[in-house]
Amino acid sequence: MASTTAVPTVPQGLDESWRVALGEEFAQPYMLALKHFLVERKGAGARIFPRGADWFNALAYTPLDQVRVVILGQDPYHGPGQAHGLCFSVPHGVPPPPSLVNIFKELKSDLGLEHPRHGYLEHWARQGVLLLNSVLTVEMGQAGAHANRGWERFTDAVVAQVNAQPQPVAFLLWGAYAQKKAGFVDDVARDGRHLVLRSAHPSPLSAHNGFLGSRPFSRANEFLARSGRGEIDWRLPSPEASGR
Description:
By secondary structure, the protein is an alpha/beta fold. The chain is about 30% helix and about 10% strand.
């Protein structure tokens, strides 16, 4: 008798390590329902950000076995041209939003790095910084429009896969939302193997309540160096230097 088990449709461009780890997740009923919802919203004329080819960029740029740092966002930017699949990042030519400006302020305070000329964070992602939003899509001008539709369960599975890795990882959890989402991480403070750094969110509404001055970048690098995983180069090359 032929099997009726659904064959997962894994997105093109996903790194092979994630395809192996998450392949069956795409066949789960909640993901099929999410896909139906997104098709329905697009058919109704909704402008969905980022474009479909960019939804899984965090998993395309940063292989599972190379993750060294995790930064969690909530959902993508909802302005035209801003979101491209990496949390807090914007493409070249797009002005950095306020939260990213505060991240750059902390970079200067923490590491002495001058404010980058752009907000495109692919250089971090390629070094093993997983820039993951909890919800991977949004509608124009409507923050949180796709919350509670299934993305959170999928990205919980992503975080769980990173947590299960044998190599130590630094989790930078900015704000209550990120801290709750990664609350199960195997924290060195509880005799685990991963470093969990919690602070306020870099949003202008909360950055002065504990994000600015928290030194997440140097503390993550110190941990990675002690763990034999090397340091992240937190500088962002200019578009000219990166060949753009």
